[in-house]
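Session log. Operator J.P. requested a structure for one protein chain; no other inputs attached. Running the standard single-chain path with token output.
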Amino acid sequence: MNEKHIAQFEARLEQLVEGAFTNLIRKKISPHDLAMKLARSMEGNLHYAQESADNRPIAPDKYTIRVHPETYDELHPSWASLSMALNQQMVELATQSEYRLLESPFIKLIVDKHMGRKDIAVRATHTQATDGNTEAMQPIRLSASKLIPKNPQLIIGGEATIPITEALINIGRSDDNHIMIDDKFVSRHHLQIRLRFGVYTLFDVNSRIGTFVNNVRVTEHQLQTGDVIRIGDTQIIYVTDESQDKNAHGTTQTFKPVDD
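Structure written below.
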């Protein structure tokens, strides 16, 4: 699945949430987490039809979203409308990714008392047998030593150094990002940094004024140590350190823009 397609999918879902469903979702679950888990569950459960003229992967069409009981109670009254909108977005994501759908996607919301208040889990399955013999696509598994760059960090505003310990980092002005930037020129959800095949890649998420790396405007960019990222009036430097191993806990942090 093209990472740009996933970023666009998340941006559209974000717009959906900020429109008709703002009061329903934003304070219950993270739109970014929901979009990422829906997209990854589609990508991780593809099938191939071995005896078919159409060799495109077959995407799962049934998605079960597990949420905390209180979240379920708040979302359930409007779930019919929300799930319809989500279905349309899943069809578009599958189309852009050149996957086949044998049935229209069906997204079900269920209660899981073991889930945290803002946590979500998504499981994708196929509702019918695919044509011909099928086999699941097996993900490529890399060893831990090859998967994660050595001690990747973001230096924000020349002041704070934030270790990157997650496969996905959301950065923007809103307080539901992993890193919140206190800069009026930064979009609420401005960019994402994703770990893909051992490389952290930056994606601009349809921000208002764009994202610049080394003074060049980018929509996506594979990060290399020393890259200088600028969003609004804020400068962020991506660095790695092959000689050290550090552990850190991911939290939301707020930073002021750097002065030129």
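Operator note: Residues 130-146, 243-252 have pLDDT under 50 and may be disordered.
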